[in-house]
Design a protein that fits this description.
By secondary structure, this protein is mostly helical. It has one domain. The chain contains four helices and no strands. It is globular.
Length: 123
């Protein structure tokens, strides 16, 4: 589990660096567009599973089912690619962002599944 914490921390750090660069007027080409969207679903899923594991179920082996992860990606897509662009020009509707939300969610799910399978068979 410790390695997953490192990966979540690394993803959060990358997300923060990208946003700080944006705030100071130094957008990072290519990275600025879809990487933050690719990282959004896994970061939110990691936060959700942490809360569920340690405060709700108190079960350190719990993992989010795929439908929950897909719900997070769908929610982000609807909120930031459909609703928010109608209220502010800061957000723009982009199908690549929707694809990034779902790709990040699927990568998160398959990485977690593979990691848990490896750790169960290793011991």
């Amino acid at each position: 589990m410790r390695q997953l914490g490192y990966i979540a921390s690394l993803s959060a750090t990358a997300w923060l660096i990208i946003h700080i660069a944006r705030w100071y007027g130094y957008p990072l080409p290519y990275v600025n567009g879809q990487l933050t969207d690719l990282l959004a679903t896994p970061l939110i899923a990691s936060a959700c599973v942490t809360v569920i594991r340690y405060w709700v179920l108190k079960n350190s082996n719990y993992r989010l089912p795929l439908p929950y992860i897909l719900f997070i990606a769908a929610y982000l897509s609807i909120a930031f690619e459909w609703i928010m662009p109608t209220y502010t020009t800061r957000y723009t509707a982009d199908w690549l962002d929707v694809a990034a939300y779902f790709t990040g969610g699927l990568l998160y799910h398959f990485f977690i599944t593979a990691y848990q399978h490896l750790t169960k068979t290793a011991f």
